[in-house]
Amino acid sequence: MVWNASGHAGQALQPSRWRLGAVLWLLGMPGVVAVVGALLPPLRAHADLLPLPLWALVLLSGAQTAVLLALCVAVGTVLAPRVSLGAPAVSAWLCGAPVGPAVRRLWRPGVAGGIAGAAWLWALSWVAPAALRPSDPAAAMPLAVKLLYGGITEELLMRWGVMSLLLWLGWRVVQRGQGRPGRGLVAWAVVLSALLFALGHLPAAQAMAGVLTAPVVAFVLVGNTAFGLVAGGLYARHGLEAAMLAHLLAHLLSHALS
User: Fold this and answer.
1) Do residues 114 and 247 lie in contact, with contact meaning Cβ atoms separated by under 8 Å?
2) How many other C-beta atoms lie within 10 A of the C-beta of residue 125?
3) What is the CA radius of gyration of the chain?
4) How far apart are CA 89 and CA 137, in angstroms?
5) DSSP 8-state code for residue 156
6) Residues with Cβ < 8 Å from 201, sequence gap 6 or more?
């Protein structure tokens, strides 16, 4: 879908690529800081085993994630408009247009996706393999990391960056870059990006479980792919902010239920 200043389908409202990319990168950086901060306690506990000083490891980890975020933001900023994807509320704001109409169009689907995601996360908590349940609740991932990194940074990485790239590649190969991407191509990009989103959670699962057993892999892939489909569908139909809103609410509401 292409967005105009009033938030309706039509002529795309496109701010400067540099401004849009810079704003989206800055939007994702608090998540980078939060996830790096969450690494400090376990790193301090094993400081004597680290190959580098703690400050150097923290700096390298943050820089690596920040560069990856910048790359994905740049990819999405260049390719998303070409395949009728966008960030309608942020784009309207940057163009000096009213933001309200875009927000009114995306908040309902975003909230619905967030409620569905929270219900899914709550249900998954009852069937999670024992290896993925922290023995110490205090050691669980902080809510700030789930909201800032999961809700915002991950959406910039996986939907804005990866899904936009996948859809653009399919559009160039199948439609030779002509017209808007067909529904089949959009569905392909949503599904594949959801699978990659799920695969990206396997390293964290391995760190928690110690070994990737079949139940652990199945749980991680099924659980994250399902939500990836929701977020990808919201991005395709309603814009990046709808996917972010759903991801944020899913973590916030599931935390309240736990």
Assistant:
1) yes
2) 14
3) 19
4) 37
5) I
6) 220, 224
